[in-house]
Design brief:
globular, eight-stranded mixed β-sheet, 6 helices, alpha+beta, 31% helix, single chain, 239 residues
């Protein structure tokens, strides 16, 4: 795949994950194509390449917690959101990596275990919520246990869980999501070791490309690991 195809694959992976978490067409007049997850992660989105024709006032019907991502800066959607008082609350950088050559698991103190049971899903949701500073719905996480392509992972050190991650497979692409380290274990190199393990695991599972959406805090790490920065994803919520 070339860079433009990977850009689309990045967002297609992300939105496929949101669908697996539980979403449906929003069913709002004047907003054909709008998809909605009414619980966590509270995303209301138009798929990649869909150019909505909005007058703006339709957006007032969105729930207060709705986060609306914009894939294209300066688009009609972004103009409509800002004109209706929606404010920018989250900026991320879409990035990808071609998994060329061989690789091996790093040797360190971090152990990965797959989340397989509802009780483990509850633990994962609580830990992920602590790492990111917002509530992660355990019901949504439990739904992913039966979703094809989803791999929920807990990272432990010295017997205790310290970080979370989620791999989601679509075609040749593996998306890396919800990589978070709890506050009391930050600054110990855990995120770096976790990413190396995730990259090795994805390679073992046959992935050719990795995609992710980086926060400002994580982008430097991903660049050092070889991920190529591509475009900004700006998410808006009504102020």
């Amino acid at each position: 795949m070339n860079d433009m195809q990977l850009d689309k694959a990045n967002i297609d992976n992300l939105t496929a994950l949101w669908r697996a978490m539980g979403s449906e067409p929003a069913g709002m007049a004047g907003m054909a194509g709008l998809q909605a997850s009414r619980g966590w992660p509270h995303r209301f989105w138009f798929d990649w390449g869909h150019q909505p024709e909005l007058e703006g006032h339709e957006l007032a019907r969105l729930p207060p917690r709705a986060l609306v991502p914009v894939w294209t800066a300066g688009s009609a959607l972004e103009r409509a959101l800002t004109s209706q008082g929606f404010g920018l609350v989250l900026e991320q950088r879409a990035m990808h990596l071609h998994l060329a050559g061989e690789g091996s698991r790093p040797e360190g103190g971090l152990r990965l275990s797959r989340v397989l049971t509802p009780a483990q899903a509850e633990c994962w949701a609580a830990l992920c919520g602590r790492a990111f500073g917002y509530e992660v719905a355990a019901a949504t996480v439990r739904r992913l246990l039966g979703a094809g392509g989803a791999c929920l992972l807990l990272a432990s050190r010295e017997g205790g869980p310290v970080a979370t991650a989620l791999l989601f497979h679509t075609g040749e692409v593996t998306g890396i999501h919800q990589v978070g380290v709890v506050p009391e274990h930050r600054g110990q190199g855990i995120a770096h070791e976790l990413m190396l393990q995730l990259m090795a695991l994805a390679r073992e599972q046959g992935a050719r490309y990795l995609t992710l959406q980086a926060s400002a805090a994580g982008e430097g790490l991903y660049r050092r690991l070889g991920f190529a920065p591509r475009f900004s994803i700006s998410s808006y919520r009504r102020g």
